[in-house]
Design goal:
The protein folds into two domains: about 240 residues, Aspartate Aminotransferase, domain 2 (3-Layer(aba) Sandwich), CATH 3.40.640; about 120 residues, Aspartate Aminotransferase, domain 1 (Alpha-Beta Complex), CATH 3.90.1150.10. The strands form five sheets. Strands 1-9-8-5 form a four-stranded mixed beta sheet, sandwiched between helices. The longest helix is centred in the C-terminal third of the chain and has 19 residues. The mean pLDDT is about 95. Strand 6 and strand 7 form a beta hairpin. It starts with 8 loop residues before the first helix and ends with a helix. The protein is globular. With about 375 residues, the protein is of the alpha+beta class. The protein has 13 helices and 15 strands.
Amino acid sequence: MRAIQMVDLKSQYHKIKPEVDKAILDVLESSAFINGKPVQDFSDALAGYLDVKHVIPCANGTDALQISLMALGLRPGDEVITPSFTFIATAEVIALLNYKPVFVDVDKDTFCMDVESLKKAITPNTKAIVPVHLYGHTANMEEVMKVANEHNIPVVEDTAQAIGADYIFSDGQRKKAGTIGTFGATSFFPSKNLGCYGDGGAIFTNDDELAHKAKIIAAHGAAKRYYHEIVGVNSRLDTVQAAVLNIKLPLLDSYIDERIKAANYYDNAFASSKHIKTPFRAKYCKHVFHQYTMQLEDVDRNGLQEYLQSKSIPSMLYYPVPAHKQQMFSSYGSADVHLPNTDYLTSRVLSLPMHTELEEEQLQYITSSVLEYVNQ
């Protein structure tokens, strides 16, 4: 049995090695390392895959969130609502831009923004909402958008962990995660479902004016070289990364299928355990399983992790400390915010290996090892 990893990028690479190597060598030969043709090719291909009008590639997922918020024209002190149960970048960019992060709770089943908590958090100063599609499961965007539209508040979807996920509306209409709100923002960090071999990100929108603004913000605020209209940043997807993504994008749906297959194996293995709650799959979402995150009941989580490590099985806590309890936000008084579901989940979640290269022998070894510990 091959060594088990949280994410097996090497094995995935070897399956597409000839195509990737050629694509990278073509970039080296062209020497168009910045804004080469593969960047525009990827932008066009991703827009087609997502069925969205505009894709603006950028340097990473954090930049994608920051540029999206900058393009909305918010002012210092404006409130931006986001869940606390997320990777820190979601809230970090809000504070970085001198907006005020307002933390809301998540649904205990989906791990995503709780709509009732969102409703209670809205004030006249609320100028944006940033739902997070966590672990590959979408937030309830139909309900989020109802609240946002009622108050005329723009929505920036953090899609870093859910590229390729489908959201299914109550009327049966389907849209890709990241294409429902005002903006979508994603990351192509190597471990993502669609990952490059360095850093990368992208912004999605159907709004022509906002797309133009986001594009020039990402280029030092200039639509024309050396003529700068607004204060911007320097955020580009380099050509090598775009070349890799052009190889991997056509494989994304098959990658998702492999993740779902592995998740189904986990679900079936743990179905009868009273100590494990397997990931919930809402009827409105096609879960793409960026992570396989279970909830533990009456289990020593640290003890389980140590036991798994002794058997050469990695596991991770995403995330042990929620954003509202991080020191970086102490000046906002966020530590006093009552988010019971967030606190509950941070004490119980554990993520098991999840990637496209998991073999049945590995899955059997992982699940039997988990059950050995939790059932003792």
